[in-house]
What we know:
Layout: E1 31-32, E2 38-39, E3 42-51, E4 54-61
Amino acid sequence: MIYNVFDEDLLTWYREPWFKRQYIEPAPIPDIINKEEEEDKVEEIRNHRKQECGIQFLVHCKEYGNEYN
């Protein structure tokens, strides 16, 4: 059974950015195709790596900047 619980020790306090260049605009809201899933348009897969649980991909989506890869 999976419980909807989060460990509070993993949280950190939010700090305002000291410099304007540290502020990142929030990502645009993805188009909702059906009511259950969100969908982004993938432009390219830029990299990949093997992890213990499988393979992770570095994906670049259209309409997003490089900071959201």
